[in-house]
Amino acid sequence: MTTTTLRGCGTALVTPFQPDGSLDEPALRALVQWQLAAGVHMLIPCGSTGEAVTLASAEHRRVVEITVEEVNGRVPVIAGAGSNDTQRAIATSREMRSIGASHLLHVTPMYNKPPQRALLAHFRAIADACDLPIMLYNVPGRTAVNMEAATTLELARDPRFVAVKEASGSLAQMTTILRDRPPQFAVLSGDDGYTLSLMAHGGDGIISVVSNVAPSLMVQLCDAMWRGDLAAARALDATLAPIIDACFVESNPIPAKAMLAVMGRMQERVRLPLVPLADALRPRVRDVLVRAGLLAS
């Protein structure tokens, strides 16, 4: 099992689609290379931002395969493998291992609403079945279940669980985990807007939606916090704030894909039940890119 420390800016990659709805493999390869050139520290294919729930199994495999190929060992590839069916999560985990992912991302099961003891059983069953290190993912806004700090900390004592992507929206919960975690267990924000605050409390970085659009800025923010340059970090946070807001004016990844399309990096294609960005929001999305210097006026 790899012991790579997960820290810095990790991009939760969008999944580019062709006009006919199929995977846009050239756009995905180009996106990965752009992220690497910007200095991103981790890549996370097939998570929430990657519309994993609407990918067929073969598509899921192909997205991770392409990411692994393009990365070629330069940064960790943390493959989304979560499911609300534990056996399906195990099967996906084994497949992600077979194609070269370095880590797994496992979200709390959605819809079932398991109690905390069931979360422990679910994640331990996955770890027992597949020997890749696991990043836990807590996002109650999507799953309807919050993984409490005590549950995260119990799993953190098991070296098979190496990190948590914390998107509870509760800084108090995040700081509780930070205070009591084992030294090698990474705590990363799952919300772009908490990056500075979490890192100021000793957190390890961000699994970012916004770095799809502004990878260099998010990397610079993490780097500034690492070296203790709070003035630079505040300035970067202020630059990023309008982009962060724009990335969530509708459900993720609708706005991010609209931005990437405006920037000429991929087609603006999402899969139902998501739909393209509302026309009324397009001027705002374009304006924040222009003001941040990411798009010519």
Please tell me about this protein's structure.
The chain has 297 residues and is of the alpha/beta class. It is 44% helix and 12% strand. It has twelve helices and eight strands. It has helices at 25-37, 57-71, 86-98, 116-129, 140-143, 149-156, 171-180, 195-200, 215-226, 230-246, 254-262, 282-291, and strands at residues 8-12, 42-44, 78-80, 103-107, 134-138, 161-166, 186-189, 205-208. The active site is at residues 137, 165. It is an enzyme of class 4 (lyase). It catalyses: L-aspartate 4-semialdehyde + pyruvate = (2S,4S)-4-hydroxy-2,3,4,5-tetrahydrodipicolinate + H2O + H(+).
Keywords:
alpha/beta, TIM Barrel, 8-stranded parallel β-sheet, 12 helices, 8 strands, 44% helix, schiff base, DapA, EC 4.3.3.7, cytoplasm, 4-hydroxy-tetrahydrodipicolinate synthase activity
Tally of contiguous helical segments: 12
Strands across the major sheet, in which order?
A: 2-1-8-7-6-5-4-3
Binned strand content: 5-15%
N-to-C span: 48 Å
Report the sheet with the most strands, covering strand number, pairing sense and barrel closure: 8 strands, parallel
- Total strands: 8
**Radius of gyration using CA atoms only:** 18 Å
Instruction: Kindly report the average pLDDT value.
Output: 97
Q: Report the CATH architecture.
A: Alpha-Beta Barrel
Q: Assign an overall shape.
A: globular
**At the first level of CATH, what is the class?**
Alpha Beta
Helix fraction by DSSP (H/I, runs of at least 4): 40-55%
Query: According to CATH, what is the topology?
Result: TIM Barrel
pLDDT below 50 for ≥5 consecutive residues: which ranges? Answer: none
Listing every helix as H and every strand as E from the N terminus to the C terminus, the arrangement reads EHEHEHEHEHHEHEHEHHHH
